[in-house]
Amino acid sequence: MKSKKHEILLSLAPVIVLIILLATVIRVFGSASLDGGSQVALLISAGVCAAISILYFHIPWSQLEEGVKRSVGSVTSAIIILLMIGAISGVWILSGVVPTLIHYGLMLIHPKFFLVTTCLICAIVSVLTGSSWSTIATIGIALLGIGQAQGFSSGLIAGAIISGAYFGDKMSPLSDTTVLASTMSEVPLFSHIRYMMYTVVPTMVITLIIFTIIGLNYSVTDATMITVYQESLQAHFNLSPWLMIVPVVTMLMIAKRWPAVIVLFLSSLLGAIFALLFQPHILAEVAGTTEISAYSQFTGVMRGMYDITSIDMGHPQVSDLVATRGMTGMLNTIYLILCAMCFGGMMTSSGMLQRITSLVLPFTRTRTSLVASTVSTGFFMDCMVADQYLSIILTANMFKGVYQKRGYEERLMSRSIEDSATVTSPLIPWSSCGMTQATILGVPTLTYLPYCFFNIISPLMSITIAAIGYKIFKKKEVTAS
After folding, report:
1. What are phi and psi of 57, to 5 degrees?
2. Considering only 57-61, 71-75, 202-206, 276-280, which range has the smallest mean pLDDT?
3. 124: which residues sit within 8 A by CB, 6+ positions away?
4. Is the per-residue pLDDT at 224 higher than 70?
């Protein structure tokens, strides 16, 4: 018993070191903590994990190294997607797609209902596409610009965007996390989605009510500021309904379940073509010249895809709105993801993560405590391995036998995992989702976190429904009914 306690305490040491270092980094560097400080904190914590593993648990370095390789390898596709998102966000702005969406959005969306409309639009698009990342990187960026023009804070707008996008991500049969959660729990996909509605729908209703109340009581920018945005965009970009072809084609490709990398590549290529057709003067400005030539057009398109660019719009806020980051702007996020995967791989391959999570097993005797433990573990896994896919897999493997032993349906487990591991991932600054959404939207994770009402309420709703016992049966009861 004493040895087991020592093992758990030693397993907690890297986690404690990470928490202390991250808290210090965030306090010292603030919004710049992702520029390098957080990455170093993760690597130091991974080093502490490796030292304890080798010196106390006598685990060979080769085993730890193999664990890191598997962990880093699991996010290879995510890294490529991030680079493609950087490219697409750049050319969509330079081509005039995003400015056009913002221009028409300012005319159509009433400021008082902007937040609730934003949440609903992102929810619908995400359900149709099955991708929260793609929704946020495309329509989300345009909605952010509209909201900023109407005077809403960036954190509040990002919270509405992320809340809607993750609702759709959970409820869409096209979502990879939804498919993964149902597969790992051995639950038919549509049975899993239907069962999630008992927690997801009331959570979304509460979220929409909150955003409606905030919007009705929010003091937004007067019409003159909105006019400044519209006039500035019209003066510098050739705005046209034809530019809507780019996002429409992109949504169709996603809906047809084409591979994400291919969709984003083709969409960025389409954006580049429309930039050449509609905004040759913008490309020349990005290239650093006033001459429209083959050289300036090629340079402008390439810089839009890979480089950080800015356009003088005559107004600082509007200039910030159309500034692009390209692939270069994604490098800090990729750097952080790699460091997070090193820490997660070390913790998993050393067995430390399993020792820590074993602490929650004694607290699974009642229905409510079982669901609460599952939800807490999903969130804890997000914090530890910094990846929602690994969190879903590890949590499902850990609790599968417990649910079977207690006699509860597998769909209760799959729902509890989705209500935690999937939706809480963008709330963690060092997780792949938290870093990605902060980078795409240009809003720090801790800034938008308080306004992600759907993501915050979901785990609590899952525990509440478990406490009430609504539509929760044991297997014998299901068979009898």
Report:
1. -90, -5
2. 71-75
3. 164, 168
4. no
The pLDDT tens digits of the residues spanning 375-410 come to 988 898 888 767 777 778 778 877 877 888 888 888
Nearest-angstrom CA–CA distance, 238 and 281: 10
The three-state secondary structure class of 259 is coil
Cβ atoms within 10 Å of 209's Cβ, excluding its own? 12
pLDDT band at 2 (very low <50, low <70, confident <90, very high): very low
Label residue 268 left, alpha or beta by phi (over 0 means left) and psi (-120 to 50 means alpha): alpha
Q: Which of 8, 419, 348, 480 is nearest to 196 (CA)?
A: 419
Nearest Cα to Cα of residue 328 among 305, 355, 359: 305
What would the DSSP string read from start to end of 67-80? HHHHHHHTTHHHHH
List CB contacts of 389: < 8 A, sequence separation 6 or more: 74, 176, 177, 180
CB-based contacts of 249-256 (< 8 A; 24+ apart in sequence): 250/134, 250/138, 251/125, 251/128, 251/129, 251/138, 254/128, 254/129, 254/130, 254/131, 254/134, 254/174, 255/128, 255/129, 255/174
Q: Is 361 exposed, middle or buried (0-12, 13-18, 19+ CB in 10 A)?
A: middle
* Residues 333-356 pLDDT 10s: 788 778 878 888 888 888 887 787
* Phi (first) and psi of residue 309, to 5 degrees: -125, 160
Instruction: For residue 107, list its beta bridge partners.
Output: none
Q: Among residues 172, 210, 152, which one has the least CA distance to residue 456?
A: 210
Structure tokens at 42: 């993760």
Q: How many CB atoms lie within 10 A of CB 337?
A: 25
Give 126-155 pLDDT, tens digit per residue.
Answer: 876 667 877 787 778 878 888 888 888 999
CA distances (Å), 394 to each of 159, 188, 212, 304, 357, in order? 28, 19, 37, 39, 10
How far apart are the C-alpha atoms of 171 and 192, rounded to whole Å? 9
- Which residues, at least 6 apart from 46, have a Cβ–Cβ distance to it below 8 Å? 14, 68, 339, 342, 343, 346
Residue 302: both structure tokens together: 């390439």
* Cα radius of gyration (the chain): 23
Helices marked H in 95-153: 97-108, 114-129, 132-135, 141-149
